[in-house]
């Protein structure tokens, strides 16, 4: 017995996860399967290849955002600047690529710069949060507003149109039946998983989210790893802004409208605790699919549009309640 | 044992004191309200025509981040330039409380405020016009207004309300869409925010057109909350749901129509399925209509330049006494502005930015596009 425990501890094997926790982790997956079954039974149009592609396409941008946001939420923080960062990145990307406003035609470099702008926002978020000790929700609320402001100035009254056909193809065309943006999203997901699982950044973020004090006593540079988490989230938002622009064909301040709520819901419904320290990128994938399948299925089934939002809310609350009630006393998030 | 009654009586005492303070506050408020309303009943007309030097021109709109309101702001600037004054633009970014606070701040500046406002929601209109009435300014409101509330009921500071009949725009664009479909086939409809009055009216216009055209069926209708982003996603889902059956797309505004075009493009249908937007005439939609390769058939223009310029001009004329609010008829104080169906035939006229000379007749007579009293 003793040896077994020692072996586990030294190898860091995940088999030590208790049963209750495993049920908890499986909850969102069960909810997702249940939704898919219900919608498939309700309409023959749901479980088809074109509809799968449509769900994947709608989930793509949300998946990129949520993968980035997962790291900040794992810390016990939150990034509310998503929509503002997307707006600035969207305008920057379009104005640097071929567009109807100026003579730039930087092509893919424009997307890189747009993404870098996101990273810069993340860096500012992280620095303000760690150096000035301002709570993350306040910092990011502020920088998000700054992002919207910068985007509004760049917008100048009407949306600049993206004229680079190569970039626009990324938003609308498919490779082997899969929308191209989905391929990017899957790559981001894989990268996020690798970072979380196999790098010091990913592991330390979990440790800090679990208990910051212990992390500090153990000699972890808490401020530095927090900074990394915000940079990851910002970079993801920047990339998502550029992706949304290729999809809509314009640089738009409203490009991220509604994404903040969807992103945080996806991360939390997937099973990452808002208090930090528990969850991860795979859980976020489940959360993103849950939300996308729900939005898609309600339309296919033909639920009256005026009550769709409420139905979405009910299903999300039910999903959280069903996955969390067995462990209520342990979830510090329920206050 | 002792502590319970003591605490209870203390609580009761505190409650009594609180309710007394509350009552006093209510009473005081009542007095103030009564005092204000009697004092300001006709403060505007009592003062007589204001000296242009004491006026401050203000336009309150949602934001400068959408082309429609940006054009509105430019129209207001053109009018202000025509009378040699600056104009202050307030943007609320969709926040009703912020809009009201900003308006109250300029009202508190001491000058006579001449305001052309696009109230954020229907319930904001009353608060805005009453604030202006109490301060003795002049306000023209557009779009949102509670049913049954008229400028005459509030006072002479509420110069006029300009609305646009969504039924007409919804109907005309639907007819243009059906013509492009040879009056046969299924369509999908993208609605605005479902409890917005224009959203309801435009959809009613669409339904009227469908009832008149037996060959056309409404396959599905969903809300995309006026946004391009949501319209893209909703259209994508609807195209999967009704694969091969969608022969036309009707959207309650241009932004949603433009989002739908991207969704059509993603499945290789752009240019093959005609599409219309029932409002706004944003530049991108106009360009698409002119180019004709995306299937964009028609939109409706309320002429945002006119709304920004003529609305402000009407408030200004009331302030300077040229438009006598006290004797004006109800039909000249709540009316529909003119809407224009924009198709390939006349799109070139709407692609040009109007010059101050183009708008000068409307600045001189802001009522020129009064097409009838509000219903």
Key traits:
heterodimer, A: 335 residues, mainly alpha, 73% helix, disordered N terminus, B: 375 residues, Rossmann fold, six-stranded parallel β-sheet, six-stranded mixed β-sheet
Which regions of chain A have little confidence, pLDDT < 50, spanning 5+ residues?
1-14
Radius of gyration of chain B: 25 Å
Output the helix-strand order of chain B: HHEHEHEHEHEHEHEHEHEHEHEEHH
Number of strands of chain B: 12
Mean pLDDT of chain A: 87
Return the structural class of chain B: alpha/beta
What does this structure look like?
The complex is a heterodimer of chains A (335) and B (375). Chain A has 335 residues and is mainly alpha-helical. Helix content of chain A is 73%, strand content 1%. Chain A has a domain of 218 residues. Chain B is of the alpha/beta class. Chain B has two domains: 172 residues, Rossmann fold (3-Layer(aba) Sandwich), CATH 3.40.50; 136 residues, Rossmann fold (3-Layer(aba) Sandwich), CATH 3.40.50.2300. Chain B is 50% helix and 17% strand. In chain B, the strands form two sheets. A six-stranded parallel β-sheet of chain B has the order 2-1-3-4-5-11, with helices on both faces. Chain B has a six-stranded mixed β-sheet with strand order 7-6-8-9-10-12, with helices on both faces. In chain B, helix 7 packs across helix 8 and helix 12 crosses helix 14. The radius of gyration of chain B is 25 Å and the shape is elongated. At the A-B interface, helix 3, helix 6, helix 11 and helix 13 of A face helix 3, strand 7, helix 9 and helix 10 of B.
């Amino acid at each position: 017995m003793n040896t077994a425990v020692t072996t586990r501890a030294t190898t860091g094997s995940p088999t030590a996860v208790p049963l209750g926790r495993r049920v908890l982790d499986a909850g969102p997956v069960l909810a997702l399967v249940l939704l898919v079954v219900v919608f498939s039974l309700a309409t023959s149009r749901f479980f088809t290849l074109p509809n799968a592609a449509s769900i994947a396409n709608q989930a793509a941008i949300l998946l990129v955002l949520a993968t980035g946001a997962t790291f900040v939420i794992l810390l016990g923080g939150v990034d509310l600047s998503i929509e503002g960062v997307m707006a600035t990145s969207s305008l920057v990307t379009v104005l640097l690529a071929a567009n109807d406003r100026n003579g730039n035609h930087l092509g893919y470099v424009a997307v890189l710069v747009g993404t870098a702008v996101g990273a810069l926002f993340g860096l500012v978020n992280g620095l303000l949060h760690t150096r000035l000790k301002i709570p993350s929700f306040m910092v990011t609320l502020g920088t998000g507003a700054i992002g919207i402001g910068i985007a509004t100035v760049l917008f100048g009254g009407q949306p600049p149109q993206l004229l680079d056909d190569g970039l626009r193809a990324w938003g609308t065309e498919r490779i082997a039946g899969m929308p191209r943006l989905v391929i990017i999203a899957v790559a981001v997901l894989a990268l996020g998983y690798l970072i979380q699982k196999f790098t010091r950044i990913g592991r330390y973020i979990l440790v800090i989210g679990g208990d910051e004090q212990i992390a500090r006593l153990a000699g972890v540079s808490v401020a530095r790893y927090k900074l990394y988490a915000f940079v990851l989230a910002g970079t993801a938002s920047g990339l998502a802004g550029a992706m949304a622009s290729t999809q809509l064909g314009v640089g738009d301040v409203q490009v991220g409208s509604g994404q903040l709520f969807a992103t945080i819901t996806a991360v939390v419904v997937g099973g990452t605790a808002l208090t930090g320290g528990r969850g991860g990128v795979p859980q976020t994938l489940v959360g993103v699919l849950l939300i996308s399948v729900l939005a898609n299925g309600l339309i296919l089934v033909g639920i009256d549009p005026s009550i769709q939002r409420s139905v979405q809310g009910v299903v999300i609350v039910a999903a959280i309640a069903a996955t969390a009630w067995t462990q209520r006393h342990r979830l510090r998030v329920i206050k | 044992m002792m502590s319970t009654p003591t605490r209870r009586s203390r609580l009761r005492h505190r409650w009594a004191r609180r309710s007394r303070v509350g009552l006093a506050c209510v009473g005081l408020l009542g007095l103030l309200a009564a005092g204000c309303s009697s004092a300001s009943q006709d403060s505007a007309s009592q003062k007589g025509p204001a000296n242009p030097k004491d006026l401050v021109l203000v336009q309150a709109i949602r934001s400068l981040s959408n082309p429609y309101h940006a054009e509105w702001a430019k129209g207001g600037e053109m009018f202000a330039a025509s009378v040699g004054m600056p104009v202050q633009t307030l943007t609320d970014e969709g926040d009703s409380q912020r809009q009201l606070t900003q308006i109250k701040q300029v009202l508190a500046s001491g000058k006579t405020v001449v305001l052309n406002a696009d109230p954020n929601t229907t319930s904001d209109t009353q608060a805005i016009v009453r604030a202006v009435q109490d301060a003795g300014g002049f306000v023209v409101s557009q779009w949102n207004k509670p049913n049954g509330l008229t400028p005459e009921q509030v006072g002479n500071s509420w110069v006029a309300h300009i609305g646009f009949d969504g039924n007409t725009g919804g109907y005309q664009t639907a007819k243009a869409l059906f013509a492009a479909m040879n009056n046969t086939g299924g369509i999908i409809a993208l609605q605005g925010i479902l409890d917005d009055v224009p959203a309801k009216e435009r959809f009613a216009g669409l339904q009227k057109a469908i009832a008149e055209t037996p060959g056309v069926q409404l396959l599905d209708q969903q809300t995309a909350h006026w946004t391009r982003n949501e319209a893209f996603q909703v259209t994508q889902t609807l195209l999967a749901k009704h694969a091969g059956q969608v022969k036309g797309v009707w959207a309650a505004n241009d932004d949603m129509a433009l989002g739908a075009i991207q969704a059509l493009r993603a499945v290789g249908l752009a240019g093959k399925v005609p599409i219309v937007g029932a409002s706004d005439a944003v530049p991108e939609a106009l360009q698409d209509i002119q180019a004709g390769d995306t299937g964009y058939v028609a939109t409706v223009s309320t002429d945002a330049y006119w709304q920004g310029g003529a609305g402000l001009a009407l408030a200004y004329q009331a302030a300077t006494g040229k438009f006598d609010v006290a004797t004006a008829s109800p039909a000249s104080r709540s009316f529909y502005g003119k809407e224009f169906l924009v198709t390939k035939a006349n799109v070139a006229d709407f692609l040009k930015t109007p010059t101050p000379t183009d708008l000068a007749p409307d600045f001189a007579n802001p009522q020129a596009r009064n097409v009838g009293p509000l219903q």
